Amino acid sequence: MRSLPPPVSTRRLRWFLALPKLGVVLLLAAVVALLWLLHQNEIEEERTSLIKDVLWLEQNLRFHLANNEEQFQQLAQDLGSQQDRKQLFRVRAGHMLKNNPDIVQIVWYDPRRRVLDALPAASPVDSELEAFGPPATQKAFELAGRLNKRVYSEPFFLSGNAAHFALAVPVFAERQLAGMLVVTYSIDGLLGNLVPWWFAEKYRVVVVDDNDVQFAAKSNIEGIPSLSYELPFEPPGYGLNFRVTSYQTPGNPLQRLLAGAILVLAAGVFWSMWIVRDLMRKRAKAEEALRAEHALRSAMEDSLTVGMRARDLTGKIIYVNPAFCRMTGFSSAELVDRSPPMPYWVPEQLDETMALHRAVLAGEAPPDGFEITFRRKDGEHFQALIYEAPLIDGNGRHTGWMASVLDVTERRRAEELARQQQEQLQFTSRLVTMGEMASTLAHELNQPLAAIASYNAGCLNLLANENFDPGDIRQALEKLGVQAQRAGRIIRRVHDFVRKSEPKRAPCNLGEIIEDCIGFVEAEARKRHVHLETSLPALPPVLADRLMLEQVLLNLIRNGMEAMSGTPENRRVLRVSATPGAGEVIVGIADNGGGIAPEIRDKLFTAFFTTKPEGMGVGLSICRSIIEFHRGRLWAEDNVQSPTGSGTIFHFTLPLESA
Ligand code: ADP
After folding, report:
1. Averaged confidence pLDDT in the chain
2. CA-closest candidate to residue 521, choices 636, 439, 595, 605
3. What pLDDT digit, counting tens, does each position of 266-309 carry?
4. What is the pLDDT of residue 124?
5. Closest CA to 572 of 644, 650, 651, 649
6. Per-residue DSSP letter, 1
């Protein structure tokens, strides 16, 4: 398994996340500072242009008033020196009024403050002029008379709220004060006349005094004031000021759009960083989980004792686990990426191994696994049991083959040893059985030998009698022969039984074998008061080793008889039956003994398991080996038909010769 890259520590991860955040914050701060500077710059520019405009307006006004002063001075001078003064006043004053809408009225007084003429004659100021004007004008009149020079009056209000000021210009005739020209200006009119439209579009112009009393105003705009600038309004002076206020403009839409876009982008960056942070956290968690999973898998793989080997579809090794490396002695680096022939293949079996390898790649490996000989790096051969399975990746694609490899050398060795031991055991068992049978044999042989002796004595007696019938002697000798044959058979059987010979399977008559065995144990059965019964229909021949089969039957019959030692004598029946089935014969040995306790049922066929004080416990184990050698089965069941309510039936099957 490939190793994962080292984990990113949580501290470093936090740094990685903090750096772009810091960067974005700094960038945002720089952008905000830039915008602020631009704004400040704009304000500064606005202020400069405001001051410039105000200065221009003030200059304009001053120039206008100075120009008018000059003209009135000239008029006053002409009124003092020329003849047709009334006419002159009318023409010149009319002219001035026409050109200066800000002049409300021009009045010509004599030195005693009587009105000589006034233009326009009927004006709102009239009534007050008759009473010699407002006090501010009177003051200016006096001052001008005293100083002998033109004087502006204080501002004053007329006809409601309209603010005015007056200019008093003394008229001299031959160096004597001969009258006074009083020109009344409307401040509103002045602003209306001299503040151009573009100025009013940009600013609000107000005339105020030191006490913030407003005298006139002109503006075409409304809104929130931003900057203002004041300048003394001189003439007329008297604490009057211009106050010019600029108003906040809606601002540059492009600039606003830009600022908005920057804010939106910054928000977007923050948002995306939030998502990235989330993703990185999730990723870190997933990596952590993966690492844990990887560690678990590695631990599992390392602790496996089964070798694992993965190959791709071309047969190249892509992975081997530590167990496989231990098994073959080659390291993972020596095996991974190797293509056939593999270093662990046995050189002498290269062709067979290659054929098997191709079969696996073609998907024809036996599903129950197969055995093969491999060679370790040190040259030692070992037996491997291999199960091949398709390797499927995460997308369900077949990418190769995964083999689990078991080293079964030891197992095979143990099996061979067990087989040899079993064989040895069989032989020993035969010897033991022989010992057990010795007394039975003696008893068995007694019968025919006694019969032979008695037939022999009979014959001798007949021969002693001269009138003997030769037929009687023949009959006796024939019977003697039969008994001698029987004795001979008994002895041969023992001889055969004891002699260790290779099992030979040949067609035999099962019924005959069973009858023989019954005959063999008859004496013992009588001694044990056991009634032997057989149920043997005509049976086809079976393929068996006669001696081995006899050993099985004798063992099972003897076990059955022994099991009935506690059964009432009249119920001690042992029944041997044989039934032909499909391709086989089923033999049953049923007793009415105590049966088999459930707890020992599983151990019954285990070697050396016995419940008898003098038992060896190998009988049933050998019986099963013999029956399995004959390709049959041996098992035990409860004898449900037993009249005592308990008992056992041992069954075994044997294949028919034709099967
Ligand atoms: P042994 O006869 O030497 O004990 P076996 O292998 O023949 O060895 O039998 C093992 C055990 O199986 C016996 O000790 C006995 O407990 C049980 N057994 C065998 N046959 C029978 C039977 N017919 N009825 C009850 N128990 C039996």
Report:
1. 83
2. 439
3. 788 888 888 888 898 898 899 999 999 999 988 888 888 889 99
4. 43
5. 644
6. -
- Whether residues 525 and 473 share a domain: the answer is no
What is the position in ligand 1's atom list of the atom closest to the CA of 559?
A: 20
Q: Which of 436, 575, 610 to mutate to test the pocket of ligand 1 (most atoms within 8 A of CB)?
A: 610
Q: Per-residue confidence at 585, pLDDT binned at 50, 70, 90?
A: very high
Q: Which one of 500, 535, 565 terminates a domain? A: 500
The reply to whether ligand 1 has any atom less than 6 angstroms from the CB of 611 is yes
Co-location of 69 and 172 in the same domain: yes
Do 30 and 170 belong to one domain? yes
Is the peptide bond between 470 and the residue preceding it cis, with omega within 30 degrees of 0? Answer: no
Q: Which two tokens stand for residue 625?
A: 């080996």
592 lines ligand 1 (CB under 6 A): no
Give the pTM.
0.40
Query: Tell me, what CATH number does 345's domain have?
Result: 3.30.450.20
Atom of ligand 1 nearest to the CA of 607: 6
> What spacing in Å lies between the alpha carbon of 563 and ligand 1's midpoint?
8
How far is C-alpha 90 from the chain's CA centre? Answer: 105
Statement to judge: residues 542 and 639 lie in one domain:
yes
Token pair in block for residue 473:
């002697």
Q: How far is the CA of 610 from the centre of ligand 1 (A)?
A: 6
Give the residue, by CA position, lying nearest to ligand 1 atom 23: 560
**Do 490 and 566 belong together in one domain?**
no
Residue 226 is assigned to a structural domain of this protein: yes
Question: Ligand 1: which of 528, 620, 634 to mutate, most ligand atoms within 8 Å of CB?
Answer: 620
Ligand 1 geometric centre to CA of 552 (Å): 13
- Looking at residue 526, which CATH number applies to its domain? 3.30.565.10
CA 590–ligand 1 middle distance (angstroms): 13
Ligand 1 and 647: CB distance under 6 A: no
How many domains does the chain contain in total? 4
Task: Dump pLDDT digits (tens) for 107-131.
Answer: 888 887 777 777 777 544 444 444 4
pLDDT score, position 123: 47
451, 476, 500: which is the final residue of a domain?
A: 500
Q: Which residue's alpha carbon is nearest to atom 21 within ligand 1?
A: 559
The answer to whether residue 293 sits within a structural domain is no
Q: Which of 31-35, 245-249, 428-432 has the lowest mean pLDDT?
A: 428-432
Same domain, 199 and 221: yes
| Residue 600 CA, ligand 1 centroid: distance in Å | 10
Return the bridge partners of 169, or none: 181
* 492 and 523 part of one domain: no
What's 379's DSSP letter? S
DSSP secondary structure code for residue 306 in this structure: S
Could you tell me the residue range of the domain that residue 331 belongs to? 304-407
Q: Cα–Cα distances in Å, from 596 out to 44, 57, 529, 532, 653?
A: 116, 133, 22, 21, 21
Give the residue whose CA is nearest to atom 7 of ligand 1: 619
Cβ within 8 Å of residue 616, ≥6 positions away: 429, 432, 608, 610
Q: Are both 86 and 228 inside the same structural domain?
A: yes
Mean pLDDT of 436-452: 68
Q: What single-letter amino acid sits at 619? A: G
